[in-house]
Amino acid sequence: MNFKIIKLLFIALMLPILFSCSDPENETPLVNQIRVASQDIIAINFPADTETILSVDSEYSFKLEGLKSNGLDRVNINQNIIWSLSTGANSTINQDGKLSAAGTAENITVTAQFGYLTTSIDIRISAAKFDQVIALHEADISIEMCQTQNIIPIGRYIDASGNEEIRPVDSTIINSIEWNALDSQSNPSQSAFIKTLNTQTSLTALAAGDIKITATALSLFSGNETTSEAFDLSIGNHLSLLKICNASASDLSTCSLNTIDIEQNNSLAIMAVGRYLNTDGSNQDINITAATKWGLTDSSVLSLQLSSDQQQLNITGNIADNSTSLSFACGDIEQNIQSLDVSQGIVLDEAISCAPGDLNCLQGTAIINVNALQISSLEVKVNGTAISHNQLFSLSSRPADITLQVNGNFADNSSRDLSNDGDLTYQLIATQPAVVEAVSGSPGVYRVLTAGTAEIQIQYQSSVFIALIRIP
Questions:
Q1: Which CATH architecture best describes the domain 41-125?
Q2: CA distances (Å), 16 to each of 6, 11, 21, 30, in order?
Q3: HSE on the CB side for 417, CA within 13 Å?
Q4: DSSP H helical segments within 226-282, as ranges?
Q5: Where are the domains positioned within the chain?
Q6: What is the pLDDT of residues 346-405, one digit of tens each?
Q7: Could you tell me the fold of the domain covering 129-236?
Q8: What phi and psi values does residue 309 have, to the nearest 5 degrees?
Q9: Which residues are within 8 A (CB) of 147 and not within 5 positions of it... i.e. 6 or more apart?
Q10: Tens of pLDDT, residues 400-449
C-alpha cells in the first residue's frame, strides 16, 4: 500500500474523532481568550473624548481602546468588536461602531465587547437644535505654518424650553459650515483654510501670523443663517528646514531630492517635508505637501498635480531632453495667489519665491531633467511580414518597393509605431551592384533595383535592428 493511500485512510479515521471533540458552547470562550491574549490587552474602554450627547437623526462613529498588560500603554482596537445597544433603543448601531441616532430624544447605552472584555457608555440622544458655532476647537489651538491639524468645532444647541447645550458640532450640520479666514483688517486671508471631509474638520495653516476665523451656518433653532464671532488664531513659525523627498521615503529625517531624472510621459510622486523645532529642543519631520506652494520655471516641460489627499505631488515629464526648475515654499510668497482656492492646493505655472529677508518664508528648488523614454526593443515588418534581427528573410517574389514598419517597445511596457519618428534612423548598407535605393521623402521605403540581399540598419536610441532581405 503506497504512502498516499495510507495518508487518506488516516485522515478518514481522524475526522470523526475531531468532530466528536468539537463543542460549540465551549469554543466561544476559548476564542475570546485567545483574541484578548493575542493583543496583550487586560481592559477596554471608550476614549475620554467620546461624545455622550448626540443630536436626533445624527450619526456618530464610536471608537474603542485597550489597556496593555503593562497597565500604561493604550492602543486602538479596530476589529473583532461586537457592538450593541440597550433594549428598547430606537437608535441603531452597526458592527463598525457607527450609531444612527433615532428621530426622537432617548437615553441609550452603547456596549462594546472584545473577546471576553466588555465596556459600556451612556448616551443621550437630544432634540436640542443647533444654533451657531461658538468655538473653533474644544481646546486651545497651537499650530505652525504649513501644518494641518484636526479640530472639533463647538456649537450651541437649544431645546424647545430654551435650555442650552454646549457640545461639539455633530454630523447634522458640520459638513454645511462655511469657514472664512480674515486678516487683521477683516479682509479675506490666504494664510489658512478649514475644510470638512466625511464629518472630520481640519485646519491648515499656510503662513505665520495672526488671523481670525469665522463660521457661517444655518441655525436649525431659528431658521436663519448665523455667523459666529471671529475666533483669533495665531500661527507660529518654528520651521527650520524645507525639502522634498520621494513620496515612498520612510525616513523623513534623512531623505532628500535635489536633482530629479524622469522619463518622458512617466510620473514621479514626491512630497514636501518640513522640519520643526519642538519646545524640548528636538526636531520633528512631517509631510507638509498640502500646505506647500509649488511652481515651475517652464510648465511646458513638466506637469504638476497634487494627489486627491494632497499628501504627494505627481510630476509628469512632457518634453524629452529638457530641464526645468521646480520651486517650492512655505509661508507668504511674492507671487499673487489671491484669486486661488487655497484649499485645493497651490500649484503655479511660474517660479515662486520668498521676499528677500522674509524670515517667515522658506523656499527651495530642484532641477528636473526629462529624458527620452528608454527603448527596450524594436520590432520590424517587411511589407507586412515580421522579420527577426540579423536573420535573412527571403521574399517569395520581387516587389516594386520594400516598406519597413518599425514598432518600438519601451521600458514602461508601452509601444508605438516609430516608422516615421524623426529620431529613428535607417542606414542602407551599400552593395555592388545596388539592390535597393531609398525613396526620397518616404522613410523606410526602398525601391527594388535588382535581385540580391539588401541590408538595412535601423536604430532608435541605443537599440539597433539589422534587416537582411533577400530579393529574388
A1: Sandwich (2.60)
A2: 17, 9, 9, 22
A3: 7
A4: none
A5: 41-125, 129-236, 242-371, 375-471
A6: 999 999 999 999 999 999 999 999 998 889 999 999 999 999 999 999 999 999 999 999
A7: Immunoglobulin-like (2.60.40)
A8: -90, 0
A9: 204, 205, 274, 276, 286, 288, 291
A10: 999 999 999 988 888 999 999 988 999 999 888 999 999 999 999 999 99
